[in-house]
Write a structure and sequence with these properties.
single chain, 384 residues, alpha/beta, Aspartate Aminotransferase, domain 1, Aspartate Aminotransferase, domain 2, 2 domains, 4-stranded antiparallel β-sheet, 14 helices, 37% helix, globular
């Protein structure tokens, strides 16, 4: 018998589609957000050591205490507060799971959840599957900053949560202290929670510092902070992330988590706990990625595309509306097939698929790959 879909409007994600097309066409894959280089050999060796030493059975549901403690210390160093490893830190199988479990812990039937778009595509399905109603608020088109008056207007008596993301995917916008203060003021006297996607926390540029919602005294007690070791240490395939939330919220979060994955791969947890003991291993990441951003942006600017400043994440947006009115989806496919460079059309990040003639590139690749991609994009006029 046919199954009535709970997500009838959802198909295969654009990231899967474009990555497969890149493989089929032997194109340089600047579409899906994963590094094109390996992890630190020290980290890889640590995983091997713990695997060989027999750390291969179930980890505790919330994560091993060593990693939760190391993560709490990292949070103290970078954000100025120390969450309780026992009661406020949970290790999960990727940030996408963290976001799903946070939404599931909070959202009830017909609750409204504000989503700032363009937005990563996992937010809306998590809300819908839990009976919630996504309420979309568009970011400012010029720089993808938040229009707080629009957010204020979107809040109703049914608003249960707000999804936020900084550094932002796909734009690279980084929130300021003023953004956090304004958000806190908007929800101060309301029963509204925040689910904060902070997977690019260590990838910021030009002297900007990532400000976690957990580091804000007025937001900490009502926020789920979702992060990713995979994004930070170039091991996205390990699917290991975390959620930091106040004790009362963590209790509800773990109730969901224990029936989604229960626990996360054990030897990798031990390896990360040891690896995190040297803080420069994550504090040096902004400089590493800024060099790649600058290399790619300098070359991309010569193609005729108009760049939109990226202050964080490992993505670069480029506008082409001054050159062509071709749809961004068609352009992305043609770029992959003809120029052999894959990107992501930004229209897929909007609920209404609005096409502002902007495409997204991932510059978390080797310098050789980036330089070759720039060379190929120099012939962009062939398809515009």
């Amino acid at each position: 018998m046919p199954i009535q879909s709970k997500l009838p409007h959802i198909g295969t994600t654009i990231f899967t589609v474009m990555s497969k097309l890149a493989t089929d066409e032997s194109a340089i894959n600047l579409s899906q957000g994963f590094p094109g280089f390996g992890a630190d050999p020290i980290l890889l060796e640590l995983v091997g050591n713990y695997t060989r030493e027999g750390y291969n059975q179930y980890a505790p549901m919330a994560g091993i205490s060593e990693l939760r403690t190391a993560l709490a210390e990292k949070t103290r160093i970078t954000q100025g507060y120390y969450p309780s490893p026992e009661h406020e830190v949970t290790i999960v199988s990727g940030a996408t799971e963290a976001i799903f479990c946070a939404v599931s812990a909070l959202v009830r039937k017909d609750d409204e959840v504000i989503v700032l778009e363009p937005a990563y595509d996992s937010y809306e399905p998590a809300i819908t599957l839990n009976g919630g109603i996504p309420v979309y608020v568009s970011l400012n088109s010029a720089d993808f900053s938040v229009d707080w008056e629009k957010v204020k207007s979107a809040i109703t008596s049914k608003t249960r949560a707000i999804m936020v993301n900084s550094p932002h995917n796909p734009s690279g916008f980084v929130w300021s202290q003023s953004d956090l203060d304004t958000l806190e003021e908007l929800i101060r006297d309301r029963e509204i929670y925040v689910i904060s996607d902070e997977v690019y926390e260590h990838i910021t540029f030009d002297g900007l510092r990532h400000l976690s919602l957990g580091g804000h005294s007025g937001l900490r007690n009502r926020s789920f902070v979702c992060g990713s070791f995979g994004k930070t240490f170039h091991v996205t395939g390990w699917k290991i992330g975390y959620c930091i939330a106040p004790a009362a919220l963590t209790v509800e979060f773990r109730k969901v988590h224990q029936y989604v994955t229960f626990s996360t791969v054990t030897p990798i947890q031990y390896a990360l706990a040891e690896y995190l003991k040297i803080s420069d291993r994550y504090l040096s990441i902004p400089g590493f990625y800024q060099k790649k951003r600058d290399l790619f942006a300098e070359g991309l600017a010569e193609t005729g595309l108009k760049l939109i400043s990226s202050h964080g994440s490992f993505f670069q947006l480029a506008s082409y509306g001054h050159l062509s009115q071709k749809s961004d989806r068609i352009l992305a496919v043609e770029m992959t097939k003809i120029l052999k460079v894959a990107c992501i059309p930004i229209s897929v990040f909007y609920s209404n698929q609005q096409d502002d003639k902007i495409i997204r590139f991932c510059f978390a690749k080797t310098d050789q790959q980036l330089l070759e991609a720039i060379k190929r994009l120099g012939e962009l006029n062939k398809i515009l």
